[in-house]
Write a structure and sequence with these properties.
15 helices; single chain; mainly alpha
């Protein structure tokens, strides 16, 4: 298989973390990540100049999320990932399960809606088009668990255990498309669960946790299947270059271990974020009720006291 489009992949020296982290940018992902960071930065500056606040935590989360994409796509991890199943699995796990969570916690859609100008009467600008997309039937379908959970699972089993994976790995465009797909699937899966952006559906916190745990066991099973296999299962990684000094089956077992172990990482991250969001929501609700009580002079309490007084009078 020709990997010439991905650098000198066939002559790579044995993998070390230092070599894997050397700069080797994929132009598509480099441009996409820099553009994403620039647009986010522009929107934050626009809000600040207007006198509006924007959470530093959200900004940090978004930036780190985009940097994790650059970490796996703009270093030699991307080159090694073309010929080593274990390194490819690190790429897959980060770009589909860690990057989406961090990017979503950065609330990029909310930021865009606040920063983009409102179009004139009867006109449709970027903000109006974004709102229309958010409330569209298409968005309701692709964020529904009946769609997101099967898609999340199929991205593993239907890809790696069929010739589709080898086909996509056979060209630079195919490889880029696959990585974009991993990122998009992660965003679509985690958005209804953890996303702070407005969307067509936002289930209760308990339902969100159930959605999370409905998908995660399949990741673990996938990892176990790779670890237990007695022969290489993916054609692309059956004959690694001799310069790497690795055994295909051992490398596949390592890939399975990575997939199995990594399935716990997003679960913990999302659970912490969900519990924090739940707590914050309860606090906001309590503050709203306090403000309402202050405004109406606590009429509910007065009415209840009057009711008790009337009962006492009746019984007396």
């Amino acid at each position: 298989m020709d990997h010439s489009g991905h650098g000198m992949t066939m002559d790579l020296p044995p993998f070390t973390l230092g070599r894997g982290l050397e700069w080797s940018a994929d132009p598509f992902f480099l441009v996409a990540c820099v553009t994403g960071l620039a647009l986010y930065g522009w929107a934050v500056v626009r809000l600040r100049r207007r006198g509006d606040a924007w959470s530093v935590g959200r900004t940090v989360s978004f930036v780190v999320g985009v940097l994790t994409v650059m970490l796996v796509m703009c270093t030699r991890l991307n080159d090694y990932g073309m010929v080593m199943f274990s390194v490819h699995m690190v790429q897959h796990m980060i770009i589909s399960m860690l990057s989406p969570i961090l990017i979503l916690l950065g609330a990029p859609v909310t930021l865009a809606l606040r920063a983009l100008p409102v179009a004139g009467k009867g006109r449709k600008g970027p903000r109006e088009l974004l709102l229309a997309l958010l409330h569209s039937r298409y968005m309701r379908i692709i964020t529904h668990p009946a769609f997101t959970i099967p898609l999340f699972i199929a991205s593993l089993y239907a890809l790696y255990f069929t010739p589709l994976f080898d086909f996509l790995m056979g060209s630079k465009a195919g490889h880029i498309a696959m990585m974009v797909h991993f990122l998009a699937v992660g965003v679509v899966f985690f958005w209804p669960i953890i996303g702070v952006d407005p969307g067509p559906r936002r289930p209760g916190y308990l339902m969100r946790m159930l959605e999370l745990f409905a998908g995660m066991p399949f990741h673990a099973f996938f990892g176990i299947a790779l670890m237990m296999a007695s022969e290489p299962m993916v054609e692309t990684f059956k004959n690694p270059p001799a310069s790497l000094g690795i055994d295909a089956l051992s490398d596949q077992n390592a890939a399975g271990g990575i997939a199995w172990a990594f399935s716990e990482v997003p679960s913990v991250l999302v659970l912490i974020a969900l519990l924090f969001q739940w707590y914050s929501s309860e606090q906001r609700q309590a503050r709203r009720q306090d403000r309402a009580a202050d405004r109406d002079g606590d009429k509910e309490l007065e009415a209840y006291n009057a009711y008790l007084a009337s009962l006492n009078a009746r019984n007396g």
